[in-house]
Amino acid sequence: MRHGAQQVLLGNWTGASTVPSRTLYPHQWSWDSAFVAIGLRHFSPGRARGELETLLAAQWLDGRVPHIVFNPSVPLGSYFPGPDFWRSGGAATGAGSPARTETSGIVQPPVHALAAWLVHEADPAGSARSGFLARVYPRLAAWHRYLTTARDLGGAGLASVVHPWESGMDNSPCWDGPLDRIEPVDPRAFRRADLAHGAADHRPTDLDYGRYVRLAADYRDHGYSDTDAPHRFAVEDPCLNALLIVSELALARIARETGADADAHERHAARLTAALVERLWDAESGMFLCRDVRDGEGGTLIRERSVAGLVPLIVPGLPGHVVAAMVATAHGERFALGRLAMVPSYDLHGESFHPSRYWRGPAWFNTNWLIERGLRLHGATEQADALRSGLFAAAGASGFAEYVDPFTGRACGARSFSWTAALTVDLLDGPDDHFPLGTPGGAPGLSVPAPRTASAAAPAVIAAEASAARR
């Protein structure tokens, strides 16, 4: 398993960074590279450091880390939207896009400080010799400042995404309501390259893409300015903000190593945690929900249950009752942890559930890795071990696929996918005492369901139950 995963990462290495997939995603993606670095640290810490520094070298002057850094050797038509669409150099002079590197103008979840700390800890001597932390700290601090200032569109301290792609969960049903306000671009006005490399029923629809293109073009045409752009789509996402909290705690560790103010980062993480609970926790659902900042005064919670609402398990300072409720929800009928090998990306009983359409139901390896880490943090060791085993089985059987059908484990999307391979390597090295960072704030004696050994028929039974519930 380890050898196969390493071969995927070697095969997707371009010389400076790692592509998620040689076919479907031929450039460098932001949060993908952070997950890749977390895996690379176990067998090539120098390359892991380079992975992060290559990405951060494309940072904009306002602090944003773009979600794509384009490889100039890749033909323009190989991916849409490409650099000719984003026009970052010409359209974004006010925001300070890099002069000699083509990038997109939007962002992705901030896993980078967490990755940088874990990479440093894997080889502290090599990291110190190279001056790694001293170089990345100011860039990471600027990245976090951008998210919590320019992107605090709700005014409560949390960062908002202004495009579904920024969440990393492109076509999640959580975005359907906010996207209804967006007039789509005519699909004849662009050519999707993704359908040449993936089944159409595994990908977002043309209607989705028409709205994605409209939002991206509006942002571009306003110079990627967060004060000038209309931001008709603005959502506080629990996954992005949970990752920001954990990365802020990692930044405190990095600050201590570099002589900067660590306490400021820890206080900021505490404020973000309080805002996360105040703004996005929903006791009735037993999980965190997204908030549509543009729907009414103060925004409105979006009543869709996605895996984004379980990712905050990685946050160490949550109240105990919140942690206990999330663990119960993960093991309940909507996500079936313990009955299915991996947690699906969307509510099994939701009206929009689809077992193979991208983020509308399939199980993804990065979110399951985050949940495994969160379960372990909060003392649910048996449940974490069971999920870890499920991840190994699915990764091996699917050829390190991008994502899988949660019922059958059938591979979907790209094969030989980098973050699947990288996070497999990370889990193979066993539990990591340094992740997540901080002390659990949860309840002592947390009661969690025992892992179940499902029969071979169980996934089919769960699928039938979920289908009947939706009907």
Can you offer a commentary on this structure?
This protein has 471 residues and is mainly alpha-helical. The protein is built from 17 helices and eleven strands. It has a four-stranded antiparallel β-sheet. A three-stranded antiparallel β-sheet has the order 9-10-11. A two-stranded antiparallel sheet has the order 1-2. Strand 10 (403-404) and strand 11 form a beta hairpin. The longest helix is centred in the middle third of the chain and has 21 residues, at 238-258. The relative contact order is 0.13.
Provide the fold topology.
Elements: H1 2-11, E1 28-29, H2 30-40, H3 45-56, E2 68-69, H4 83-86, H5 88-91, H6 112-122, H7 124-130, H8 132-149, E3 160-161, H9 176-179, H10 206-221, E4 235-236, H11 238-258, H12 262-280, E5 281-282, E6 287-288, E7 291-292, E8 300-301, H13 320-331, E9 363-364, H14 365-377, H15 381-398, E10 403-404, E11 411-412, H16 418-428, H17 458-470
Antiparallel strand pairs: 1-2, 3-4, 4-7, 5-6, 7-8, 9-10, 10-11
> Main beta sheet: strand number and arrangement?
4 strands, antiparallel
The low-pLDDT segments are none
Helix segment tally: 17
Roughly what fraction of the amino acids lie in strands?
A: under 5%
Mean pLDDT, to the nearest integer, reads: 92
User: Structural class, from secondary structure content?
Assistant: mainly alpha
Main sheet strand line-up: 3-4-7-8
Helicity range of the residues?
40-55%
H and E string: HEHHEHHHHHEHHEHHEEEEHEHHEEHH
Label the overall shape. globular
Annotation, overall tally of beta strands: 11
- Amino- and carboxy-terminal Cα gap: 40 Å
CA-atom Rg in angstroms:
20 Å
